[in-house]
User: What shape does this take?
Amino acid sequence: MSFPAENAATEIKHAGRVVRLKWHKLRQCAEDPPFSRRNLRAGLAAGASLEVDIRPLACGRFVCLHDAQLEHESTGRGPVAAVDAAAIARLRMREAPSERPLLLDELVDIVGGAPTDPRARVQLDLCVTAEEIDTAAARGFTRALHGLAERFILGGYDWEAVTRLGKEVVGLALGYDPTEAAGAFGGADVLRLVQETAPEADTIYLHRKLVRSSRQREDGLVERLRERGHRVDCWTIDHGPPGAAEDLQTAIDAGCDEITTNTPRAWAAAVGNGVLQQTDSR
Assistant: This one.
């Protein structure tokens, strides 16, 4: 198992196939602030798989923030959904005081204008339910992605919300995370849940514990999802914690197409140093 030097933090080559590393919140390493414009440009140039969270604003535009309250990630206070883009422009990110929160419109402009390897794609992780998507938000989302939708995938845990925003956007791929709906890890028939809820999803996002429990049961969940035409992303496996290398190995052996991580650089170095073995970890 190895990383090609020219793509040091974007993919793993294993057993004749490529397993992508997705930069969670645009991070290359754990110390990076979330949603960094510099890392966005670097990832586009490198052909990386990238991820940002998005939430709607009161004006119908979107901002790249994970939490519902502004104070958790920025210098603002109160609900994200209660402010407009002008208010967002006056804020700064808590982990990067020189940076304003990244608006979706700006992100799309960067994707459209920056030097980009054709393999690069940005996942927009929708952090709200369908009830929080109004007509203004749907129209604003469509406007923001116009002409560049094929560079993105819209994913989330609420399939109704994902389809409400993205179904009519030409060229936009959609993804579904069944982890929350599945309840306790391994306690639900995830394959049936996906078939009934989101059979047309391009990518299915599975928590690492769900992948691990599936592997232990030898139920072939990842393989069966891939047989039905879905790509499978395992989230979130960071280098360093106890058991992380085993989780990464398990996800790769299970057949996952992509690994979401805050530490793609560290995994690149670790794999290059032979931390993982090319074996089946069942």
Observations:
- The chain has one domain: 5-56+121-272.
- The longest helix spans residues 135-145.
- The chain has a mean pLDDT of 92.
- Residues 5-56+121-272 form a domain with the TIM Barrel fold (CATH 3.20.20.190).
